[in-house]
Design a protein that fits this description.
By secondary structure, the chain is an all-alpha fold. It is about 75% helix and about 0% strand.
């Protein structure tokens, strides 16, 4: 993982995490368990934000008939 933390890199990581959660719902639990193992409070808060954002986006999207 790159050591830079500019806006583009963070946005890319956030987008990738959210996309992974959408494609593979159990990913969110695995991701949080991995972050918890690192014992990094800042990392945990970021991970929770990503997962919460995905959850909110799922609820906001309207169900459209196909």
């Amino acid at each position: 993982m790159a050591s830079r933390h500019d806006g583009c890199e963070v946005a890319s990581l956030e987008a990738a995490t959210i996309a992974s959660s959408r494609r593979d719902p159990p990913f969110a639990g695995e991701y949080l368990n991995t972050v918890l193992e690192d014992d990094d409070q800042q990392g945990l808060m970021i991970a929770l934000r990503y997962i919460a954002k995905e959850s909110q986006e799922c609820r906001v999207r309207p169900n459209r008939p196909s």
